[in-house]
């Protein structure tokens, strides 16, 4: 252990997404290759001697206790646990959640030593995995609020690969088998239990971990929400969601020396007539079983919406992935442009 193929695959996956900045300590991890990466895992992260590193992925993550702080993490999947190697600045990002992370005081502020904290979710504590719409993200749920993490991969391939690897590792777990199902008769199967509401697709793994996928109703609910925001101008029957993608909105800081830009996570939804930007809650829905009250905010909050007919041009950057797109819309809403020009230039 490990095979040459696995070492090569993990080395290839050990690349930080270019759009996000990380601390020096995580840059050090990203610089490790081949056997050095495996030795780093066993020497600094692994909790038991005989666990094997199976998969590595870089992703933005959200924690249930700190839903507003998106942080970059190196996600390491082994045969015993899922490790989230985090930037140490995350501990100080939300003062209200200081009890979530316990950190010993250390005299390394002014030295060349850079600290990372590691959040560990043991596979034996894993209860369910919720896959987001179009595999843009997934949420891992353990037995308490401290053990709920969403990985915002923003990439269906990365999501699919991680889920496959996780299922393979879970198959190795020795868990007590589930009790034999009781044979149901026809009346109890099709009688009073039908609530008329379609549940999400559930796949119960042999390790008893649930893998939950969204159903068509979720897209229907989203289409209904979008139609509401359009002030009922569109017939819901003809409204089709053409694209759903987790993206970043670029806010340029004007007047700064380097004209720096901040990236705001947004959900972009394209219909046949409009383009929408939403703030989406990726961590609170569906509600965990232990939740006592609904989340403080809705799952989708509209940030901006524009008609496609008002779209003037689309500017495309020439850099490699991720591609930057600039949408330029006409400022004039629901007015005749020529009439205004005539008044400006030829009228009193």
What is the compact description of this entry?
The chain has 348 residues and is of the alpha+beta class. 21% of the residues lie in helices and 31% in strands. The chain has a 9-stranded mixed beta sheet with strand order 4-3-2-1-7-6-5-9-8.
Provide a descriptive summary of the structure in words.
- The protein has 2 domains: 4-173, PH-domain like, CATH 2.30.29; 217-329, Roll (PH-domain like).
- It is 21% helix and 31% strand.
- The protein has 7 helices and 15 strands.
- The strands form 3 sheets. The chain has a 9-stranded mixed β-sheet with strand order 4-3-2-1-7-6-5-9-8.
- Helix 1 (4-13) packs across helix 3 (34-45).
- The model is unreliable at 191-198 and 335-343 (pLDDT under 50).
Q: Which CATH architecture of the largest domain would you pick?
A: Roll
Total of domains: 2
Distance between the termini: 84 Å
* Helix content class: 10-25%
Q: What series of H and E elements makes up the topology?
A: HHHEEEEEEEHHEEHEEEEEEH
Structural class: alpha+beta
Q: What fraction of the residues are assigned to beta strands by DSSP?
A: 25-35%
Give the full name of the CATH homologous superfamily of the largest domain.
Answer: Pleckstrin-homology domain (PH domain)/Phosphotyrosine-binding domain (PTB)
Give me the side-by-side strand order of the main sheet: 4-3-2-1-7-6-5-9-8
Give the averaged pLDDT, no decimals.
Answer: 81
Q: Which oligomeric form is depicted?
A: single chain
The number of E-state strands comes to 15
Cα gyration radius (Å): 24 Å
**Count of alpha/pi helices:** 7
CATH fold title of the largest domain: PH-domain like
CATH top-level class of the largest domain = Mainly Beta
Largest sheet: 9 strands, mixed
Poorly predicted tracts of residues? 191-198, 335-343
Overall 3D geometry?
globular
GO cellular component, one term: endosome membrane
GO molecular function, one term: kinesin binding
Subcellular location: Cytoplasm
Main location: cytoplasm
């Amino acid at each position: 252990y490990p095979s040459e193929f696995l070492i090569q695959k993990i080395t290839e996956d050990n690349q930080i997404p270019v759009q996000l900045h990380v601390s020096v300590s995580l840059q050090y991890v990203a610089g490790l290759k081949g056997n050095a990466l495996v030795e780093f895992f066993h020497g600094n992260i692994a909790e038991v001697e005989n666990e094997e590193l199976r998969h590595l992925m870089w992703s933005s993550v959200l924690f249930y206790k700190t839903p507003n702080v998106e942080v970059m993490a190196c996600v390491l999947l082994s045969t015993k646990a899922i490790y989230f190697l985090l930037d140490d600045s995350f501990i100080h990002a939300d003062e209200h959640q200081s009890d979530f992370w316990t950190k010993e005081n250390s005299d390394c502020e002014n030295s060349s030593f850079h600290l990372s904290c590691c959040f560990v979710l043991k596979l034996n504590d894993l209860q369910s995995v919720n896959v987001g719409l179009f595999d843009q993200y997934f949420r891992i749920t353990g037995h308490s609020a401290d053990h709920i993490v969403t990985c915002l991969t923003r990439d269906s391939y990365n999501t699919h690969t991680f889920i496959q690897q996780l299922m393979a590792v879970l198959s190795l777990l020795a868990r007590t088998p589930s009790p034999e199902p009781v044979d149901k008769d026809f009346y109890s199967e099709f009688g009073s239990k039908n609530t008329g509401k379609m549940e999400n697709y559930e796949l119960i793994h042999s390790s008893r971990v649930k893998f939950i996928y969204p159903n068509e109703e979720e897209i229907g609910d989203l289409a209904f929400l979008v139609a509401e925001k359009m002030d009922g101008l569109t017939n819901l029957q003809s409204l089709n969601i053409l694209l759903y993608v987790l993206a970043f909105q670029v806010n340029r800081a004007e007047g700064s020396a380097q004209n720096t830009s901040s990236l705001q996570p947004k959900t972009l939804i394209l219909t046949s007539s409009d383009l929408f930007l939403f703030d989406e809650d990726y961590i609170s829905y569906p509600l965990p079983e232990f939740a006592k009250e609904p989340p403080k905010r809705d799952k989708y909050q509209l940030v901006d919406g524009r008609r496609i007919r008002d779209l003037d041009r689309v500017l495309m950057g020439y850099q490699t992935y991720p591609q930057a797109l600039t949408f330029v819309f006409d400022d004039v809403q629901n007015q005749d442009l020529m009439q205004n020009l005539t008044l400006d230039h030829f009228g009193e």
